[in-house]
Amino acid sequence: MSTVTLRSFEETLEKYDPALGLEVHVELNTESKMFCGCPTEFGAEPNTQVCPTCLGLPGAMPVVNRKAVESAIRIGLALNCQIAEWCRFARKNYFYPDMPKNFQTSQYDEPIAFDGWMDVEVGGETYRVEIERAHMEEDTGKSLHVGGATGRIHGADHSLVDYNRAGIPLIEIVTRPIVGAGAKAPEVAKAYVAQLRQLIIALGVSDARMDQGSIRADVNLSLAPTGADRLGTRTETKNVNSLRSVERAVRYEMQRHAAILDAGGTILQETRHWHEDTGITTSGREKSDAEDYRYFPEPDLVPVAPTREWVEELRATLPENPTQKRARLQAEWGFTDLEMRDTVGAGALALVEETIAAGATPQAARKWWLSELARRANDAGVEVAEVGVTPAQVAEVQRLVDAGTINDKLARQVFDGLIAGEGTPEEIVASRGLAVVSDDGALGAAVDKAIEANPDVAQKIRDGKVAAAGALIGSVMKEMRGQADAGRVRELILEKLS
């Protein structure tokens, strides 16, 4: 893989304005596929969840999944979209091995939802992301390229195709160009996908597991000279499957585009692959325009015409608006604006909410997710939600702290055990011997040892300088590997030296 010269992010912003476009594919959690009755279970044996319809065999006739249409309408309403009174499917024609029919049944010029918006907050500023459309389609199969070092088709010895995913219902949500974000463009992209994912989960229409591909983003990026009245040529980075990578992909493409333009080159309109391990993109294929797909109306499916009564019934099932929910939660939790902004920015809002629901206080929940667990996630290069600890486990760790069984320092070792899969917090405390020692016999012996080793400090305490006890407490804690009851240690020191 050749090395690509990049402009620094700061130099890029001195000369160019970025424009973003995001296409987010949401795999719906229906029990059957979009146009047939095949199951949609994730992880099944390859090519066991297929039938003549989703394989595109001659004579097989598709039937629209009503639950998928319902989910599409609810997503559209939640995104403040208009819902079409009449729409239809089209055939998007192209050949690729994971497309068994050699066309994808999608929607083209008549989507079910259109003209919506979502507000996202980044760094105290609100950005309105305009939604161009949310349309229904079916997913493709999955190719596995065997051999080679990258897992890509280039360099592979051979390829395998699993068609289980072919035909699973998808909703593709397409934004209009997002301009004016400047230096915050990467953060805006991440914040939008994060908030959209939270909304999808709240709607209950998908598990939105980015690690399993049930929600994935295509990131479109272009640069134009500062002050220009038209957009530059865009590239589309396909199938970015983590929030962190969305931000990194935008930043990388901005710097790559700037280097090409500064060198007098031109940007090729193309799709690109994101490489999680190296944090770069590589060329995929030249991007096709709509006319290249030879769209035409799907002759085997009748139009979809949701009644206004049905639409309003579905509107009544929508969850709380994300912006209003954040304001409500901030008031309930007593967070400052900065605390709430940091919680949202870390992608931890839902985690904190679930931890509080499991019994922790708001400040305790925020403390663990935004400090200890956020640090671990950053070290591992994953989102904080993927660090390997659940909200219920965090709440249980805090219960052990509140009960005096462990302290904050020992709790960090409990998190080590949780991430390593060693059992429940209580089991880890027992197996690792982490419980706080409150026994006066053991503590008294450690206190005597600390006094003997630090006679000058002991004399200060005898002379009335009680604050000096902190040094002896520290010695005792070190001697007992952080497991001493610090409050009782202090009491014993003062009793012995009074």
TrEMBL record:
Gene Ontology biological process terms in this record: glutaminyl-tRNAGln biosynthesis via transamidation; translation
Keyword Nucleotide-binding listed: yes
Catalytic activity: L-aspartyl-tRNA(Asn) + L-glutamine + ATP + H2O = L-asparaginyl-tRNA(Asn) + L-glutamate + ADP + phosphate + 2 H(+); L-glutamyl-tRNA(Gln) + L-glutamine + ATP + H2O = L-glutaminyl-tRNA(Gln) + L-glutamate + ADP + phosphate + H(+)
UniProt xrefs under SMART domains: GatB_Yqey
Keyword ATP-binding: yes
Cross-referenced InterPro entries: Asn/Gln-tRNA_amidoTrfase_suB/E, Asn/Gln-tRNA_Trfase_suB/E_cat, Asn/Gln_amidotransferase, Asn/Gln_tRNA_amidoTrase-B-like, GatB, GatB_Yqey_C_2, Gln-tRNA_amidoTrfase_suB_CS, Gln_synth/guanido_kin_cat_dom
Domain Asn/Gln amidotransferase: 350-497
Region forming the signal peptide: none
Annotated EC: 6.3.5.-
Top enzyme class: ligase
Assigned keywords, A-Z: ATP-binding, Ligase, Nucleotide-binding, Protein biosynthesis, Transferase
Gene Ontology molecular functions: asparaginyl-tRNA synthase (glutamine-hydrolyzing) activity; ATP binding; glutaminyl-tRNA synthase (glutamine-hydrolyzing) activity; transferase activity
UniProt-listed NCBIfam families: gatB, PRK05477.1-2, PRK05477.1-3, PRK05477.1-4
Similarity comment: family membership: Belongs to the GatB/GatE family. GatB subfamily.
Subunit relationships: Heterotrimer of A, B and C subunits.
Entry function: Allows the formation of correctly charged Asn-tRNA(Asn) or Gln-tRNA(Gln) through the transamidation of misacylated Asp-tRNA(Asn) or Glu-tRNA(Gln) in organisms which lack either or both of asparaginyl-tRNA or glutaminyl-tRNA synthetases. The reaction takes place in the presence of glutamine and ATP through an activated phospho-Asp-tRNA(Asn) or phospho-Glu-tRNA(Gln).
Name of the protein in question: Aspartyl/glutamyl-tRNA(Asn/Gln) amidotransferase subunit B
Gene: gatB
